[in-house]
Amino acid sequence: MFTNTSKTPIYKIKEIVESNKVAAPAKVGMISYMDVFVPAGPTGMEPAQISFFHALNISTKINKGQIEITKDYQVCAVGRKIGSSEVALLQKMNTKPFSYQMNVVAAYDDGSILDAATCKISPDDILGLFQKGVKNLTAVCLQTGYATQLSVAHSIQNAFRNLAAIGLQIDYKFAQIANAQAQVAVAANNSKPAETGKAKEEPKAKEEPKEEEEGDFDMGDLFG
Known about the structure:
Strand order of the largest sheet: 3-5-4
Order of helices and strands: HEEEHEEEHEEEHHHH
CATH architecture of the largest domain: Alpha-Beta Complex
Number of strands: 9
Radius of gyration: 43 Å
Helix content: 40-55%
Shape: elongated
Number of helices: 7
Strand content: 5-15%
CATH class of the largest domain: Alpha Beta
C-alpha cells in the first residue's frame, strides 16, 4: 500500500486499515484462532429441534414455546480444528464468530523500515514519554541538589515559599508577600465578628417564686 505520509501519518493509516473488519462464519476443518461461546438464553427455535442440542450435550429447557440454553456452551477453542457439528450449531444460531482484516506488519518511511509496534506510535505518545522523562529528571535534580535548567524554577519557587512563610510568621513585610499579608489580615478581621457571634449567652437562672413570709397582717378596721 502506497500513501502520502505528509498528509496522513502512518499511525492514522494503521488505524484506518485495521478498523475495517469483515465478519466470517466458521468453516469445517479450519483451526480456530479464538474461543467461541454460545451464550445462555433463548434460541428462538422450536422444541422439535431440541434433539440437536442433546446430541451436542448442550443443557437446554423449553421456555415459552422455544428452546432455551441454560448455561454458556463453548463451541470452539483456540488451536482446535472446527468440526461439522460446531459449524451447524453456529449456523443455527446465526452467528459469525470470526472476522477477516488487514494487519499492518511494517512500513517503509523516509529510508527506514518501521515495525508494527513503531507504526502505531502517535505524536501524543511521544510527547507523553518526553514529559515523563522531564519529570523524572527534574525530581532527581531537586533531590540531589544539582541545579539544571529544569530544576532551577522549582528551586526558586520552593525558596520563595520558605521566605514567605517566615515573613508571615514574624510579620515582616516585603513587596512580594504584601498581597498575601493583606489577605491574611482581612481573613483575621472577618473571623472576629464570627467568633463573637458564636458566643452563646449563658441562660439566665429562672427565678423561683418567693414564698410569702408568715407574720401579722394589718386587718385595718375590719373588727373596728
